[in-house]
Specification:
Elements lengths: L7 H9 E3 L7 E4 L3 E5 H13 L9 E5 L10 H16 L2 E3 L6 H8 L6 E4 L13 E4 L2 H8 L4 E4 L2 E8 L8 H12 L7 E6 L8 H10 L7 E3 L4 H9 L19 E6 L6 E3 L7 E3 H4 L6 E5 L6 H11 L9 E5 L3 H9 L2 H7 L3 E3 L18 E4 L15 E4 L2 H10 L26 E2 L32 E8 L6 H4 L12 H4 L11 H10 L3 E6 L11 H8 L2 E6 L4 H9 L3 E5 L13 E4 L2 H6 L3 E6 L2 E6 L4 H9 L2 H5 L1
Parallel strand pairs: 3-4, 3-6, 4-5, 6-7, 9-10, 9-12, 10-11, 15-16, 15-18, 16-17, 18-19, 21-22, 22-23, 23-24
Antiparallel strand pairs: 1-2, 2-8, 5-20, 13-14, 21-25, 24-27, 25-26, 26-27
Length: 644
Amino acid sequence: MKRPPLNVTRKILAAHLVEGDPAKDAELGIRIDQTLTQDATGTMAYLQFESMDVPHVRNELAVSYVDHNTVQIGFENADDHDFLASVAKKFGIVYSKCGNGICHQLHLERFGKPGKTLLGSDSHTPTGGGIGMIAIGAGGIDIAVAMAGGAFHIPTPKVRGIKLTGRLPKGCSAKDVILKVLEKYGTKGNVGWIFEYFGPGVKTLDVPSRATITNMGAELGVTTSVFPSDTVTKQFLVAQGRGQDWVELVADKGAAYDDIFEIDLSKLEPLMAAPHSPGNIVTVKKMKGTKVNQIMIGSCTNSSYRDIRTVALYLKGKHVAEDVEVGIACGSRQVVNMLAADGSLAILVKAGCRILENACGFCIGAHMSPRTGAISLRTNNRNFEGRSGTKSAQVYLVSPETAAASALTGKVEDPRKAPVAAVPAPKKFPIDDEMFLYRKTAGKGLKKTEIVRGPNIAPVPKGVPMPEAYKAVCAIKVGDKITTDHIMPAGARLKFRSNIPAYAKFVFEPCDPKFHDNCLANREKGLANVIVAGESYGQGSSREHAALCPMYLGVKAVIAKSIERIHRANLINFGIVPFTFADAKDYDALEAGMALELPDIRAAVTGDGTAMVKAGGRTITVKTALSDREKHLLLCGGLLASLA
């Protein structure tokens, strides 16, 4: 029987399907070819992998990157780096040393392969979709399972085709494309979708541009985004010395999509995401002339050679405004070497830019926090309140072109006023893999290696089996669009990531500094803690600590208007039931500190997911839709507990 024509998404999923039927099952299990971790999430992922008692990684490739907490103030970060290196050596993982670059840029350059699956403990792992991978962000424990050879489970996706026509005008770039998509679809309501880009406009975008679009697609809340693998992809891989990794992968003629949105690239104009959401889109034209205090260029979204070279062309022979601070963070050593070779680095230094380390840095508030009340233009992917490290700062997300044009005057400027020539795709990239360690033992490992454990590295806590019922307290009530940065602060707090009791002290610190103490007090009384939230709870980072630390504090359920995909999966992985209101109006009836009862929670989980919550003299109906696998995990107290 001849199969129907397939789009790129369906082709890759079909080739990796190990559980479920896309035609009838709500959940699919797929084989994972490659995994990546970064240091902020990797320590916990590898502690969990250790507990599985597997002698070495079993997937095709596992890479451990150090790119988040590279500023080593105190012993904690350096100790974690040593732990990660020793784990990589022992279990057969490639290790990318601190200073090598940002995981997504590096993986695109040196390891990503069209048609493969990639699972990463970072929400921007979909960057790999820029070269035709199904690349998905997930919690660290899911990566540990994949490294042990287990399947990864996703809701059976719907596929939205984003048809691109035309060609971008001068002064516009890929950042404006993804901001246009965000303007259309927002940051919520896209759970369970994969966005696939197709159409004649695709061939006008180089691989770094495609990667910018798939990277920031994470802000939509979709499972992932993907481009075809075509001659443009081939040119990129050949230039990286990896031509043998290329395969053509395009949608079949007549392939169907569940929905289609068309963008004429020639009609786009420069856009910005205004505070405090990547979905709060305004035009540069509207904001033109707004005073700017700081401009940060780089991050995994816009740190390629194409991006930074473009900035250098805007600044060549000029100087940034005297009252604006400009920082540049390249995505990899390869990018730095190319900029040094062609003179771009000298242009940037002479223009008054600060050259920062090849790391996530300013994007996660690890350094370069703006001054009080500052307006900061940034080329990264998120502008959540306080994420920059300064709660009062107003952060706008822009393209490298808009950032560079604005740097010259200290005001928001339209880059189309004086556009620069397009940067051609390099025919050959300089290859230097010396800071990737243990490549020869990848997949095999060195069993006798001793793992280095600093005093801040603590055992991973495990959940306990679910009882029949809970007497509980509403430990906190929060509003809409609560991100994982609200739940588990990043920046300086990330150095406690390997020590759950220590890191748990900061759960919900931006919302309620007393949350930790109140939860422990409730736990001592034998009461479960419940989190009540509004729409789109758990946006942002894949940081599983936003579920693991609350579990440690005795949180047993979240009741929200809606919950984002990665965070929902993390909650289940750590034994926390992700409920939503049957009637969103019931959100108003719950208050922090209110006594709650969940009299039949175990029966609800094993049944159809409907539960009754007694609160303040009334009964509220909540619901959760669970697969049999998810039911089992919750009943056991989480994934690790289920393996015991």
